[in-house]
Amino acid sequence: MWLSAVHKRCLHTSLRLLKKSPKTLKGRTTTAQHWLFRQLNDPFVKASHDLNYRCRSAFKLLEIDDRFDILRPGYSVVDCGAAPGAWSQVAVERVNSNGKNTDLPCGTVIGIDLLNIASLDGAHFLSSHDITDPVTHARILELLPNKQAHVILSDMAPNASGFKEMDHEKLITMCFTLLDLAERVLQPEGTLVCKYWDGIFAPKLQEKLSDVFSGVRVLKPKACRKDSAELFFLARMYKKPAK
Fold it and tell me: Domain containing 16: what range?
C-alpha cells in the first residue's frame, strides 16, 4: 500500500473521530455548505492537520513517491506552483534537505510560485516569481548544486474561470512551459511530475512528454477527489537535448 503505517493509522483515526456539526452549516450558501461538508468528511484534510502538512495535496505526492521512488536523499528538486508548500514539505522530508538525518546525503528543494509561500526549513522559496520567466530560471540555476535538478514537480494550476474546457487548455499550456524549464535545469535521466486536468489537449501533452522522456505514466492518486478531472503525468528518464 502507498501509505506508511503512520499515515494509515492517522487516516483510520480521522474517519473514526471526524464529526459533522450541523451548526457549522447554518446560514451558509448551498455551495459553501457543500464545500464545508466535503471538507469535514475528507480524511485527507484531517490527516494533513494531524501530520502538520500545509494541505491535503501532500498525500498525492506521498503516494506517487512511495510507489515510484522518485525522491531520494541528496536529490535536488524544483517544485513549481509550490504555494502553500505541502509538496515542498514532502520533498524536504524525502531528500533530507533540512539535514535532519545526518547519516544520509542532504538534498535541495526550491519552490516557486506567483503567490507568497511561508518559509520552510530545508526549502528555498522564490515567492512572486513566474516559472516561465528566464530570470526565474537563472535564479533556480544559482540555487541548484551543479546547476541541475533530479526532479521537477508541478502541482500548479490556473485560477478557475468556471469554463472547464478553457481551464483545461490553460493548465495544459502551463504544463508545456515545464518542458522549457526542464531543458534548462533537469539533468539527463531526470523525472518530471505534473498535474493536468483531463481533456482534449491532454494527448498532445503526453505525446510531447514521450518525445523527451523514455517513460510516461498517467496517475490518479487516491487523494484526488473521485469527481475531479485531476490527473498527473509521471515522466521519467529525461532525454536532454544535445546543445
Answer: 5-50
Check whether residue 44 and residue 88 sit in a common domain.
Answer: no
Verify that 213 and 103 share a domain, yes or no: yes
CB atoms within 10 A of CB 102: 7
Q: What's the average model confidence in pLDDT over 27-54?
A: 58
- Which grid cell sits at 141? 540555476
Specify the higher pLDDT residue, 55 or 186.
Answer: 186
How many domains in the chain?
Answer: 2
Q: Would the pTM count as exceeding 0.90?
A: no
Helix (H) or strand (E) holding 43: helix 43-50
Q: How far is CA 62 from CA 7, 11, 70, 165, in A?
A: 10, 14, 10, 29
11 and 64 belong to one structural domain: no
CATH number at residue 79: 3.40.50.150
SS3 of residue 175 by DSSP = helix
Task: Identify the pLDDT of residue 113.
Answer: 97
Burial class of residue 83 (count of CB atoms within 10 Å of its CB; 0-12, 13-18, 19+): buried
Pick the catalytic residue from 19, 100, 195, 220.
195
Q: 141 and 35, same structural domain?
A: no
Which has more confidence, 65 or 33? Answer: 65
Whether 195 is a known active-site residue: answer yes
Whether residue 165 lies inside any domain: the answer is yes
Q: Is residue 115 part of a domain?
A: yes
Instruction: Write down the residue that cell numbers 539535514 correspond to.
Output: 99
Query: CB count, 10 Å around CB of 128?
Result: 10
pLDDT > 50? residue 43: yes
Sheet (strand 213-219) strand order: 124-127, 108-113, 76-80, 149-154, 186-197, 230-238, 213-219
